[in-house]
Amino acid sequence: MPRLGLREWFAVGRVIAHGDLLRTSSSLRLCQKFERGLARRLGARHTLAVNNGTAALITALQACRIGPGDEVLVSAYTWMASAAAVLHVGAVPVLVEIDQTLTMDIDDLAAKITPRARAIIPVHMNNRPCDMDRLLDIAAKHDLRVIEDACQAIGVRYKGRACGTIGDAGTFSFNQMKNMTCGEGGAVLTSDDLIYERAYCAHDMGVNFRKFAPHRTDQEFVGGNFRISEIEGAILNVQLSKLPGRMRAMRRRVAAMEPILKKAGLPIAPHNNPGEACSIVVTFDTEAEAIEFAENIGVRRLFDNSKHVFTKWTAILDGRMAHPRFDPWAWAEDVSPPSADECPRTLDLLSRSCAISPILQLPHPAAIVLAHRLAKRVPERKS
């Protein structure tokens, strides 16, 4: 996880000394400073800071007018919130297989589009961007909104463009396991003025009376309360200044480690933007090889990663919402919840794949030592 230091400590102390923690009234305007800085650094017109990545997804979906009766195509490999956010706005998630890159399989995406489809949520998992060129072509053909779930890819680029700025809207998370953090927190990015206005409404109870809010009375609707405080804004400004160096270091570590692992015969998973890779995944021929390799320090098997695997989304698979009459599947013409055997290729790939996990935290020399150690522990072929 990204480390916090004295700069963050002093930034928070300044807010506390100032005495006003609310972003809506504090004269420090640290949240607004962060929003402007993130938009400028990543190349978007607008950024809206919210209190977590799930809130960012809900806000973006509402801003894009996704709701009851709609289908949203979502990667089957993602944190549960990517699909849950769709349900929270009354729409239903349609799970899409992943391919060898561990991101959305574009062929399966095309095959699962129905007349009810209204949006796609590509998920850039493990700092690995989706094939956005092909995905955008399909979205344009079917007039679908593209809402990027870049919660695990803040600072990652795809063919020169920042993940989260390529579709109609992008979403980030800043919890402590991400590339930058304030403990929790999130953001919505867009270059569409109307989407931004609706997102602002969605995240702040539908208000448009704030003097610094975008003002379109015809876009006002009942929103939620997903605001962040100036304390989080203070931390995020410092973390944003550290992000470029942090991402350069991650890319250097990947570039140094991959040749060592490849020479040893480890099967490195392909990447949609290999020159900018910030993560390493190895995909074995068999599940047994992956289980054996995951016993090494610094390695985790993707299938063992909690609710990132759709078969562990029990409430979604069972179709259980907070109230029985809040039933998005019925509103989508009696579409059924996904089943545990919905995406077998995804389960197969996750069962055979391992991530080399501590690339973000390790000093460069330690990353090289790890690569050499793992190169000596290639599992014996089981097939």
UniProtKB/TrEMBL annotation:
Native source species: Lacimonas salitolerans
InterPro entries noted in UniProt: DegT/StrS_aminotransferase, PyrdxlP-dep_Trfase, PyrdxlP-dep_Trfase_major, PyrdxlP-dep_Trfase_small
Pfam family, one: DegT_DnrJ_EryC1
Family: Belongs to the DegT/DnrJ/EryC1 family.
One GO molecular-function entry: transaminase activity
Full protein name: DegT/DnrJ/EryC1/StrS family aminotransferase
Alphabetic keyword roster: Aminotransferase, Pyridoxal phosphate, Transferase
UniProt superkingdom: Bacteria
